[in-house]
Write a structure and sequence with these properties.
Blueprint (H helix, E strand, L loop, with lengths): L1 H5 L8 H10 L11 H16 L9 H10 L5 H15 L11
Helix pairs in contact: 2-3
């Protein structure tokens, strides 16, 4: 859908970097490769959103708290825990499908 939207105007050249950002944003390990300068910060931001920047990313507590105050999660993390637990009950031997290593 994103590539289709980008193809509608002069941003067609953004299609591959945006595609990689979407595909790799749940990657657990650092992304190395094409469009790394865009994909890796996006991946880290997504992980920061999930974990409030700690402990994996070394984000200072005051900064994470300020972000949380400015952009509250509105139940996002709680919902993620619910979805993970539901998936684990139904598929106990299968890794989460959205996670990439």
């Amino acid at each position: 859908m994103a590539c289709g939207h980008l193809a509608e105007d002069a941003r067609r050249s953004w299609s591959r970097p945006v595609e990689l950002m979407i595909l790799m944003h749940h990657k657990l390990l650092p992304y190395r490769g094409e469009a790394e300068n865009l994909v890796e910060p996006f991946r880290r931001a997504d992980l920061c959103d999930l974990t409030r920047g700690r402990p994996l990313l070394g984000v200072e507590r005051a900064f994470a708290d300020a972000l949380e105050q400015r952009f509250p999660d509105a139940g996002f993390r709680r919902r993620m825990v619910q979805l993970v637990l539901r998936w684990a009950r139904v598929h106990p031997s299968s890794p989460l499908p959205m996670v990439r290593v």
